[in-house]
Amino acid sequence: MRSVDAAATVASVLPTERYLTALRAEVDLIIDALAGRDGQPPALRSAAVPGCPDWDVLQLVAHTGRVHRWAASVVAQALPTRPHRQDVPPELDDPADLPDWFAEGGQELLLALADAPEDVQAWRLFDFPLPARLFWARRQTHETVVHRVDLQAARAERPLTDAEAQIPDDLALDGVDELLSLFATSPRAGLRTTTPAVITVAPDGTDRTWSVRTGPDTAPELITDVPAPDLRLSGSPAAVYLGLWNRLGGADGTGDGLRVEGDVDLWRQWRATVHV
Question: For 63-83, what is each residue's pLDDT tens digit?
Fold first, then answer.
């Protein structure tokens, strides 16, 4: 088994314009859900969020809107270090203004990313060989996809299925890659096992697979040449994406689309320790 060179994963990242198109669409979906412009009643601000048990819709939207403004400032101002961020709910004269407040932050982010030069020098999360503009376009797209799903789940009062989430395959696969190559394998990752173990992630309909080796003393790492994993996760790209983000329903977190083969306790440990 060999470790994966981080630079080798950059080739699979989507073009910036693909992220901007997706981000614009996701922002609009959140606005529509908040304002009830999609043929359903507006999302209740006090509704619980299944994927974020400590939040209601207002806290979810406040977080997402603040993150949009925060990331926009990093890119637009080419900030060299991490700025402070608060996720407190906005102070609005009229609660009905929440969709407009969120829309303003989304537009600010989209403009910052669209206007930034390709080689803008700005702070990024993680030590990863990806240009700042592309990094933030990718990161904010997946931030918004997942929280759009959270908002729709809050309105449905249950986790969405992978089909209901309507996440295009290319975005879902890219999100799996981001989660596994950055969050799950960072030095801060919480996943540790008492003995070495390998998790292989193999979405249906693609030849792309990822394998993560974990153990008791070091951060998890991506590896290649895996003969037989201890745990194999498969299903539609959206099911794998949402499952890894702990957004599927069911007592075991697999919804009706994620397949878990092998060490079920290792899957339970993933769900308990890998959070973004």
Answer: 999 999 999 999 999 999 999
Q: How far apart are CA 32 and CA 35, in angstroms?
A: 5
Answer for the pair 49, 57: CB distance below 8 angstroms, yes or no: yes
- Residue 167: the pLDDT is 98
pTM, 2 dp = 0.94
**What six digits make up the tokens of 100?**
């407009």
Distances (CA, A) of 90 to 55, 95, 105, 143, 153: 15, 10, 11, 19, 22
Each residue of 20-29: pLDDT tens digit? 999 999 999 9
Cβ count within 10 A of residue 218: 11
Both tokens of 155, joined, read: 């309105």
Which residue, among 69, 113, 63, has the nearest Cα to 88 in the 3D structure? 63
